[in-house]
Automatic annotation (TrEMBL):
Cofactor note: Binds 2 Zn(2+) ions per subunit that likely form a catalytic dimetal center.
Protein name, entry field: Fatty acid 2-hydroxylase
Binding annotation for heme: H88, H112
Organism: Cephus cinctus (Wheat stem sawfly)
Gene (UniProt): LOC107268108
Domain Cytochrome b5 heme-binding, chain residue ranges per copy: 63-129
Length: 380
């Protein structure tokens, strides 16, 4: 699959006017969206009026603010993709020339994955009955965590088809709150803990002065950083992308809670600042298990520095992951490449590209994604 990164030479090819296709017919009345009490109101702002000439329409479409409705046509259906622009993997400027036009030809010339097309259908302003087939398997008006196991053999297909809608996991407000993590909470929690272990290592574990022991300290700390990159890769590949048996209620629910919701809710999980980061309570529980494992693997003189390095590695991973979804890195920077890389993983290469902060172990284990060469850099 190719994510939405259109070659520069195709941007203006095959653009078809939709003025004769009644783009404004979606403004008539109230339309139910996604079976989840979402409605298109009668106050929907039309991008042009019925009395406007084609030249006036063209001018208004070309000069509209980005906050205006961004209406396009595809296969005879009308879409408002204003909510997609900011998060479009190919950058918002890739889409900008198509406002008010048909995407039929350009999407035919630039193939997209099944996941990308499924997400695109979230923005349709008309009947979604065909698209809704698999999404009707869940009652979106109720907490969904305990529903996903009922999908059984449809779960794997369902979870890899992203949607754009609000979610609630638990009925309990307290449990729901535990799934929400502001980005700044991650450094607030993990930097002091990492510094604490580093301090304990310096004051109790080394027999010589800190200055004389600095080479050993640096090596142990670096080991911790390297170990985190391996944990990041292996957990992502072996645990988070483990396909649960269709008859296992427990494993389906666990998979969805650990990672499935991250792929399913492309906006409301990956692009929601409150859900993207790993919640502190389960993270601290996992860190406790890892600490006890490290005690079995490393000598006392190293252990606290290794733990400190691992925690800093985790901190960097979580914040990098957040930035890859939310940020707009400059072209050809490290994070620019990693953002493209991670978008490929989300939309097409679900079984490749497991490194998030680094590609290191993708190289080692043969799961590297080769990014397509672009004529023009993406601007998010």
């Amino acid at each position: 699959m190719r994510v939405m990164e259109l070659r520069a030479e195709t941007i203006y090819q095959g653009v078809e006017r939709t003025m004769s296709d009644n783009v404004d017919d979606v403004t008539k009345g109230v339309t139910l969206r996604n079976g989840n009490s979402w409605y298109l109101s009668n106050n929907y702002k039309k991008p042009y009026s019925d009395s406007d000439s084609n030249s006036d329409i063209k001018f208004r479409l070309d000069n509209a603010e980005e906050t205006d409705n961004f209406v396009v046509k595809y296969h005879g259906k009308t879409y408002d993709i204003s909510g997609l622009l900011k998060y479009h993997p190919g950058g918002r400027k890739t889409l900008k020339p198509y406002k008010g036009f048909s995407l039929d030809r350009v999407l035919a010339e630039t193939p997209h994955s099944k996941a990308a097309h499924h997400l695109f259908e979230e923005f349709v302003l008309e009947n979604q009955s065909e698209y809704q087939d698999i999404e009707k398997l869940i009652n979106w008006n109720k907490p969904i965590l305990w529903q996903v196991s009922s999908l059984k053999n449809r779960y794997w297909e369902w979870v890899n088809l992203p949607v754009n809608r609000p979610i609630r996991l638990f009925k309990s407000n307290f449990l729901e709150l535990l799934t929400i993590t502001p980005w700044y909470l991650v450094p607030i929690i993990w930097i002091p803990i990492s510094l604490y272990f580093f301090y304990i290592g310096c004051t109790t574990d080394i027999s010589d002065s800190v200055v004389n022991s600095m080479p050993q300290i640096i090596i142990a700390f670096a080991w911790g950083l390297l170990l985190w990159t391996f944990l990041e890769y292996s957990l992502h590949r072996k645990l988070f992308h483990m396909k649960p048996p269709p008859d296992s209620t427990t494993l389906i629910t666990l998979h969805f809670l650990l990672h499935g919701l991250h792929h399913k809710f492309y906006f409301q999980a990956p692009f929601d600042a409150q859900r993207l980061l790993f919640p502190p309570v389960p993270a601290i529980a996992a860190a406790t298990i890892l600490l006890n494992l490290y005690k079995l693997l490393f000598p006392p003189v190293m252990i606290n520095f290794v733990i400190s390095g691992t925690m800093i590695g985790y901190l960097c991973y979580d914040l990098i992951h957040y930035y890859l979804h939310y940020g707009a890195p400059k072209a050809e920077t490290y994070l620019y490449v990693m953002k493209r890389y991670h978008n490929y993983h989300h939309f097409s290469h679900h079984q490749e590209g497991f490194g998030i902060s680094s590609k290191l172990w993708d190289y080692v284990f043969g799961t590297l994604i080769t990014l397509r060469q672009l004529i023009r850099a993406i601007e998010w």
